[in-house]
Here is the input.
Amino acid sequence: MTIETLSEQLCFGGRQGFYRHQSAETGTPMRFAVYLPPQAQSGPVPVLWFLSGLTCTEENFVVKAGAQRVAAELGMALISPDTSPRGEAVPGDPDNAYDFGLGAGFYLDATQAPWATHYRMYSYITQELPQILAAHFPLDMSRQGITGHSMGGHGALTIALKNPAVFRSVSAFAPIVAPSEVPWGRKALGRYLGEDATAWADYDACALVRSGKRAPLVFIDQGEADKFLGEQLRSELFADACASAGQPVMLRMQAGYDHSYYFIASFIEDHLRWHAQALAPV
Here is the structure.
C-alpha cells in the first residue's frame, strides 16, 4: 500500500496534497487528492468524499470549489479521487466522445469486454482507496460522508445507498439520478454492463430506492438553469421515487444556476456544514 506524493501545499493552515499509487482494482496507477485540515495534526478527523463528474480528474474540485477554507474551520478532511482509470492500455470511447471511457468511469464495476479489466471504480472507491487512506492519513473512517457532482452525484447516491453502514451522510450537486432512463446513463451502463437493463438497476439511484435501499436524509442542490436538467439529470424522478418509498430527501432547486463549478462553489459551504453536523461525534 505504498503511495507517491506528487505535491503538498499549505492551505488555510492545513495541507492540500496530491498522490498516486498502483491500484490492484484498476490495474493502473491512480491519482487522488486529500485535504487535511489543521485539526489533523492532533488526531484523526472526519472524512468527506467528493466524486467529480464527466471529463474531470482529482483536480477539478480541489482547484475550483473553494472548499478548503470551510473544511479547515470544521476540521474535516476532503477526499477527491480521479473519475476513471487512465493509461495507454485503458480503452476510451470508440468515438472519442467525452461521456464514456476515460474521465467517465461512472463509479461502477464494468462486466463487459474490453472495459471489465480496468473500469472497476465502484470497488476502487468503496474498498481499495479507503484502505490506502486509512493506512497513510489521520482519518476517522468511522465518520464518513460522501457528495459529488453530475456523474459524481450519481456515484455518491448509489454508493451511499448501497453502503449505509459506511456513509453517515450523503449529498449531491446536479446528480444523474436515473441513468437507466437518460442518454448519458444508457450509453455508459449499456457498454460497461451489457444490454440487459436488469443489470443496470444496481447503479441507478432511483431503482435502488424503489428496491428498498436506504440512506440518511439525502441533500441535493440542482440549478434550474442547468442545460442538462431536462434530458440527463431528471432530479424530479428521484424526488418521486423517494416520496413513494419513504426515503427522506431535501431537494433545493436553485434559480438561475447552471451546471458549472460556479454553482458548486456557491453552495459547497452549505453542504460542508450539513455533513459536519451529521459526522459529529456521538
